[in-house]
């Protein structure tokens, strides 16, 4: 029986770690990487659960690319329809690990999977990560629909068209292959649906459409 301890000291938490999970708001990732630099075990593997992209002087960049650049570790990502409170309550959900190295992908799957947390592994890591950011944009549109009282048919059209635009954007943005099947994983259509019906972005957009503030 393993005992899990919450360690507030970043350097103590990463000391000797074979696997590093990054779960911080995206605006803090550069600062976290600066603190970790030179303290990460050689050969360690990283996985980002951060849903977002970095907007800097060079345009949009994936968070995993920034971590890889700063720390020199191989990166994977985990994205899916995973509302944190429901995961904590052990309600069943699926998730997607995007990992270019399938050997590491299987290792991470074994580490993360439980009877209530079903993991699929795909190699299109960039597409998986991008889904986690773009679905929030579509959710804002879905929230406007709710706030303006347009109904479920209109909202379904916004979600479908939003998914098509996500696929189109990924094909322009990602360096590697982008296949439609990745969007049928939890990171794609499932996370999009969850966010468009229950997420914070939808809620804020609905309130804005109703009140104008």
From TrEMBL:
Gene Ontology terms: biological process: carbohydrate metabolic process; glycerol-3-phosphate catabolic process
Enzyme Commission designation: 1.1.1.8
GO molecular function: glycerol-3-phosphate dehydrogenase (NAD+) activity; NAD binding; protein homodimerization activity
All copies of domain Glycerol-3-phosphate dehydrogenase NAD-dependent C-terminal, residue ranges: 126-211
Pfam families reported for this sequence: NAD_Gly3P_dh_C, NAD_Gly3P_dh_N
Keywords: Cytoplasm, NAD, Oxidoreductase
Catalytic activities: sn-glycerol 3-phosphate + NAD(+) = dihydroxyacetone phosphate + NADH + H(+)
Domain Glycerol-3-phosphate dehydrogenase NAD-dependent N-terminal: from-to ranges: 6-103
Its job: Has glycerol-3-phosphate dehydrogenase activity.
Name of the protein this chain belongs to: Glycerol-3-phosphate dehydrogenase [NAD(+)]
Organism, as annotated: Acanthisitta chloris
């Amino acid at each position: 029986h393993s005992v899990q301890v919450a360690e507030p000291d970043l350097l103590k938490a990463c000391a000797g770690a074979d696997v590093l999970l990054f779960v911080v708001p995206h605006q803090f990732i550069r600062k976290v990487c600066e603190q970790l630099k030179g303290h990460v075990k050689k050969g360690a593997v990283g996985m980002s659960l951060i849903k977002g992209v970095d907007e800097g002087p060079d345009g949009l960049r994936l968070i995993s690319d920034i971590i890889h650049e700063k720390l020199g570790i191989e990166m994977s990502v985990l994205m899916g329809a995973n509302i944190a409170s429901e995961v904590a309550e052990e309600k069943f959900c699926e998730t997607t690990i995007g990992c270019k190295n399938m050997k590491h992908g299987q290792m991470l799957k074994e580490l993360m999977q439980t009877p209530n947390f079903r993991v699929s592994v795909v190699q299109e890591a960039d597409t998986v990560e991008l889904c986690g950011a773009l679905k929030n944009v579509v959710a804002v549109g879905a929230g406007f629909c709710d706030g303006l009282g347009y109904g479920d048919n209109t909202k379904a059209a916004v979600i479908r068209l939003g998914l098509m635009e996500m696929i189109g954007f990924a094909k322009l943005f990602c360096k590697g292959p982008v296949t439609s099947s990745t969007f049928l994983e939890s990171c794609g259509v499932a996370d999009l649906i969850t966010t468009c019906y229950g997420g914070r972005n939808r809620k804020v957009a609905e309130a804005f459409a109703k009140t104008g503030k």
